[in-house]
Automatic annotation (TrEMBL):
Pfam families per UniProt: Plug, TonB_dep_Rec_b-barrel
Protein name: TonB-dependent receptor
PANTHER family attached to this UniProt entry: PTHR47234, TONB-DEPENDENT RECEPTOR (PTHR47234:SF2)
KW Membrane (keyword) present: yes
Keyword Coiled coil: no
Location(s), subcellular: Cell outer membrane
Domain of life: Bacteria
Stretches assigned to the TonB-dependent receptor plug domain: 56-169
InterPro entries, alphabetized: Beta-barrel_TonB, Beta-barrel_TonB_sf, Plug_dom, Plug_dom_sf
Endpoints of the signal sequence: 1-26
Organism: Brevundimonas subvibrioides
TonB-dependent receptor-like beta-barrel domain mapped to chain residues: 472-1052
Length: 1086
């Protein structure tokens, strides 16, 4: 139980008290108060279970009031909390698009250390997590109108609240004993493109039996429109850097700027339903040419699926208009850097800011939230409390498109079904019935120029030409929408009370309660059936002149064809479902696809997930004697039992044997753990009102936990409060914390995933590395790795005949999964706070909170890309990293390409190997200026709050091979060195409040200056960082009458947006949605 008590304070002390105990991040405007003492409403002091004066709260707190949450122009609770500097990297809905099964989840993230390291409580009690196998709480399931305040402990608190409070605690304090009827409604724009949100909330409460029983009921409906990337104006404009000059890695500086900022960028490498590029080649430039950049050459016509043969280029690339093809318009400028990812300015192509992002930037969501509760005074000293909550939420979002390459040529037999090269690479031939005639003619007549090697002074000479009647089709294909249905239930039942004095224990408060939570999620994903797509797109005319699938034409006379579905294998006849149901699919051009064909190639899966939580908590708090007049010793003891479980299934069952571009995999078998915990706290006042100072207190906390699967852990906290005068106070704390591995991290089954893989052993990639040591290491290590397969490549010269030129098509399939051998993370946090409430400015308070957090044994995932780089970038092969990757040493005889040394599988999992260090300083200033009191003229009351954070250091130690190696994140994107919020409220009359809020962030590095020095012409120096970002919000609240208040707000009033040179990546801390308006009303008829 979190103890409560009533206190009396004078007006001038009240501001300091509230700041000491919980500096309010957003101050609601309060009515003017008399100079006489006022009774302060009973408060809950988060951070300790011991009853105490709020001025002696042992840990730094931030407080957000209900009024602030209701008057803000932000759409959701998490959207507002994410504007608090300490919570700036919380997961807001726009961060969840593209995430499997996470659309719309709102997860707080303190200190940017991860949502799993932030403990979220409701009235001091645990809340079930929403993501599969996770304890992270979706805070938007907490009824907004029921929230009294949000109290945030910004430091480790596991010894008080248990595991997972590594970076801090969010405690949502709900309203108690509400009586009356309150209706709150809101309409708001969520993007300046016209999408909006609507919410209606109703809260009713009634006291019965002489106020011994309070009953309340809450209901809320909320709907948010979907925002697509193309709906955001600055994304739709296509801004970004475009390469203008190409430099070799050995001499990267030639005085010519490598990239310039352009609007209307286009990309022709992948289009909706395709572009076709004829096989072509590049002439090697003279070695003394400052723009000499080694490019892979097209040396072979036998392996016609070699990626280096299909560089997107003017005259070689075709797009579609209706059912005909034409050469692509490359606009006003073509990037000089890159081949398969060429960018042009104007002309044809997709906007990379929208097509390469996931299609949705905010999911469409519809939510209904209900909660009922009761408080019943059984006796004056015993109270029964109960609550029940049910939330139903549906989200829909587009997660991008399926993608693929189709190689067109006549180098494979026409007597069988065509091979499937990978999950996103296929083959068809020039007899494809949908292939436009002019494009077929161009492919058949195509020739490539063969060049010799470049010399020191001359480009590669033309040796001759060779017939190259083949091309590559590249496309974004079918949509991949995702649908989620979530239900969350939570039930609380308990007793609390005051037992008076028991022996040496005075004023004994006790609480015993049980909480049950359950979160269910039903997910539906849609994508592409790989095998059926390969059959449908390979369309021909049969003997009757009808367009059919090739597999139908070949089996019509009783023949058989190879079943290209690796999950089935064997052969197929005309009666096989995949043949009999096949509908020819015209892939050449957007809009040419029949619905029947799209239905045939559609694949879908659905699955269900469940989290359950049982939590029983008992605590007692009391006071001992006052030995030396400093105040009574406080003590709290308690025990807690908690059980977490999760399970999920349906992926495998719904997919069956379908070979799909979807994230299939095994079911999540039921997994669980339980933990028994005992805890205690002790606070010892050292002195009060002596020559040593006004007050001092030493307090400590301890918790021992026994996890059924991870064993025992012990954590502690030590706190010291020293107030030399009523104007100045110091607080310091040292806390240890743990985070147990989540069930998802430990037991998640291996599921299929896809990776756009950049091979660190590709010769061209090695030579593009600017660090000489890493480049030389990769040459040696890749050669060693290749030798293990009996292979030899030239890893130095990209133009050499035997250079390693991997062709992965569009992606590589691999697996993600859990690790049951994980151990708990361990952390230590230190804070030191200074609180100033000067008498010369009685309404001014200043708080400075310094913090340090170090987390060891951090559970971190090692991506396949990172593992591949770590495998070959060190002085020798990193065998641990290499072991997670599978390469092939053979060339598949049925695949018309060179497969040798390609990555064919990978495992991505988490291990205890990383470390996190973070240091910073939070600062808060609050000032109230009453013109009547200060100037003698009643011109209104001003309330000002300044809240900010200075991020001194944020280091991630993620190199498994070199634990001392770290990445410094401070001042990089998402991690501003300084972020602050300035809030000014003005109340000219009692019924009107006007507000102005400014969110300001320092510039964040895109390219580190030390890297820019090595290539000082890479871009305009102004584009090295994001530039400072400022957003202004304005609000107004008018009390029409006692029972009706109207509010209005404009968010991002001056339409601030992120730096245009950031391109396609959406950084939510910069507010991507432009100027938007909201109006709301609050009605209390009784």
């Amino acid at each position: 139980m979190l103890s409560t008590r009533k206190y009396l304070f004078g007006t001038t002390i009240l501001a300091g008290v509230l700041t000491l105990s919980a500096p309010a991040f957003a101050q609601s405007t309060q009515p003017a108060q008399d100079e006489e003492s006022v009774q302060v409403e009973e408060v809950i002091v988060t951070g300790s279970r011991i009853r105490r004066d709020p001025t002696t709260a042992p840990t730094p707190l931030i407080q957000v009031t209900r009024e602030t949450l209701l008057t803000t122009g932000q759409n959701t609770v998490i959207d507002y909390l994410a504007t608090i500097p300490a919570l700036s990297n919380s997961q807001v809905p726009s961060d969840t698009v593209g995430s499997l099964n996470a659309g719309g989840l709102s997860l707080p993230n303190l200190r940017s250390l991860g949502s799993g390291r932030t403990l979220t409580l409701v009235d001091g009690r645990r809340h079930v997590g929403s993501p599969q196998g996770s304890l992270a709480v979706d805070v938007d399931t907490i009824p907004r109108l029921l929230i009294e305040s949000v109290e945030i402990v910004t430091g480790g608190a596991s010894s008080v609240y248990g595991a997972d409070a590594v970076s801090g605690v969010l405690n949502f304090v709900l309203r108690k004993d509400f009586e009356g009827l309150e209706i709150d409604g809101r309409w708001a724009q969520i993007n300046d493109g016209g999408q909006d949100a609507q919410r209606i909330s109703v809260l009713a409460g009634k006291n019965l039996f002489d106020d011994r029983l309070n009953l309340y009921a809450f209901g809320e409906y909320e709907k948010l429109d979907e925002v697509l990337s193309g709906d955001i104006d600055w994304l739709a404009e296509g801004w970004g850097l475009v390469g203008r000059d190409a430099d070799p890695s050995a001499t990267p500086y030639d005085g010519v700027r490598d990239a310039e900022l352009y609007r209307d960028r286009r990309g022709l490498q992948l289009l909706r339903w395709g572009q076709v590029t004829l096989a072509n080649n590049y002439q090697p430039s003279a070695l003394n040419n400052p723009n000499n950049v080694p490019l892979a050459s097209c040396n072979s016509t036998a392996n016609f699926t070699t990626g280096s043969c299909f560089s997107v280029a003017p005259g070689q690339t075709y797009v579609f208009s209706g059912t005909t093809a034409r050469t692509a318009n490359f606009g006003d400028w073509v990037a000089l850097t890159g081949t398969n990812r060429t960018v042009n300015v104007g002309g044809d192509g997709e906007n990379p800011n929208t097509i390469f992002n996931v299609d949705s930037t905010l999911p469409q969501s519809e939510s209904a939230r209900f909660q009922v509760g009761a408080n019943f005074a059984i006796t004056p000293d015993i109270n029964l409390y109960a609550e029940a909550k049910y939330v139903d939420e549906t989200t829909d979002l587009a997660t991008g498109y399926s993608f693929g390459d189709i190689y067109i040529g006549d180098l494979t037999p026409r007597t069988n079904s065509q091979q499937i090269l990978s999950t996103s690479a296929y083959i068809t031939q020039t007899d494809n019935a949908f292939l436009p005639t002019n494009l077929r003619d161009a492919i058949l007549a195509n020739r490539v120029t063969i060049y010799g090697p470049a010399t020191a002074t001359a480009p590669g000479a033309v040796i001759g030409t060779a017939a190259a009647p083949f091309a590559r089709y590249s496309a974004w294909l079918v949509d991949r929408p995702q649908h989620n249905e979530r239900q969350l239930q939570r039930y609380v039942l308990g007793l609390n009370g005051n037992a008076g004095d028991i022996s040496i224990f005075k004023n004994v408060d006790w609480d015993i309660g049980y909480t049950y939570g359950r979160a269910d999620n039903h997910n539906e994903e849609n994508g592409l059936d790989i095998a059926r797509f390969s059959y449908a797109m390979d369309a021909v005319r049969n003997s009757a002149g009808q367009i059919v699938c090739r597999v139908q034409a070949l089996t019509a006379g009783g023949g058989t064809v190879t079943n290209r579905n690796p999950n089935v294998g064997g052969t197929m006849t005309s009666a096989s479902p995949d043949v009999a149901q096949c509908v020819p699919l015209n892939v050449f051009g957007l809009g040419n696809q029949s619905q029947a064909a799209l239905d045939y190639v559609h694949a879908g899966l659905q699955f269900d997930q469940k989290n359950e939580q049982h939590d029983a908590l008992a605590s007692v708090a009391a006071q001992l004697w006052d030995f030396w007049g400093a105040g009574p010793i406080g003590i709290a003891l308690g025990a807690e039992y908690r059980k977490e479980s999760t399970e999920g299934g349906g992926r495998s069952a719904s997919l069956g044997t379908t070979y799909a571009q979807l994230n299939g995999g095994a079911d999540f078998l039921a997994a669980e753990y339980d933990v028994n915990e005992f805890f205690g706290e002790l606070s010892v006042p050292l002195f009060r009102d002596t020559w040593l100072g006004d007050y001092a207190e030493l307090s400590g906390s301890y918790r021992t936990s026994d996890f059924s699967n991870f064993g025992k852990s012990d954590v502690y906290g030590v706190n010291l409060v020293y107030r030399p005068t009523e104007e100045l106070a110091f607080k310091t704390s040292l806390n240890t914390s743990v985070r147990a591995p989540s069930l998802g991290e430990a037991y998640a089954p291996f599921t299929q995933t896809f990776l756009l893989f950049t091979d660190p052993c590709a010769t061209a990639n090695i030579q593009a590395v600017t660090d000489t040591t890493i480049r030389n290491n990769r040459v040696a290590n890749c050669a060693t790795l290749a030798a293990q397969f009996g292979l030899t490549f030239n890893f130095v010269d990209p133009t050499a005949t035997n250079a390693y030129r991997p062709d992965y098509g569009s992606s590589v399939a691999g697996r993600n999964g859990g690790n049951p051998l994980l151990k708990p993370e361990e952390s230590e946090s230190f804070t030191f706070s200074t609180v100033i409430t000067p008498n010369f400015a009685p309404n001014l308070s200043i708080v400075l909170d310094y913090y340090e957090i170090q987390i060891d044994n951090v559970i971190a995932a090692v991506s396949a890309g990172t593992a591949a780089n770590n495998c070959v970038s060190g002085p020798t092969l990193n065998n641990n990293a290499c072991a997670t990757l599978t390469r092939t040493g053979v060339n598949d005889p049925v695949t018309p390409r060179d497969d040798r040394f390609l990555l064919v599988d990978f495992i991505q999992s988490s291990i205890n190997y990383a470390k996190r260090n973070v240091r910073g300083l939070d600062f808060t200033a609050n000032y109230r200026f009453d013109t009547d009191e200060m100037l003698g003229h009643n011109w209104g009351v001003f309330n000002y709050a300044l809240n900010g954070s200075w991020l001194i250091e944020q280091k991630n130690f993620n190199n498994i091979d070199n634990p001392a190696d770290f990445t410094a994140l401070e001042s990089t994107l998402f991690y501003p060195k300084v972020r602050l919020t300035s809030q000014l409220n003005y109340r000219p009359i009692e019924s009107l409040t006007l507000g102005w809020t400014m969110d300001w962030q320092t510039a964040q590095d895109i390219v580190l200056p030390r890297n820019f020095i090595a290539n000082a012409d890479s871009r305009d120096p102004a584009y090295l960082n994001s530039g400072n970002f400022t957003r202004h919000d304005f609000s107004a609240s008018y009390k029409v009458r006692d029972d009706l208040t109207v509010r209005a707000a404009v968010t991002n009033a001056f339409d601030a947006e992120q730096a245009r040179w950031l391109g396609a990546t959406l950084y939510s801390n910069f507010d991507p949605y432009g100027r938007r308006f909201s109006v709301s009303l609050n009605y209390r008829p009784w």
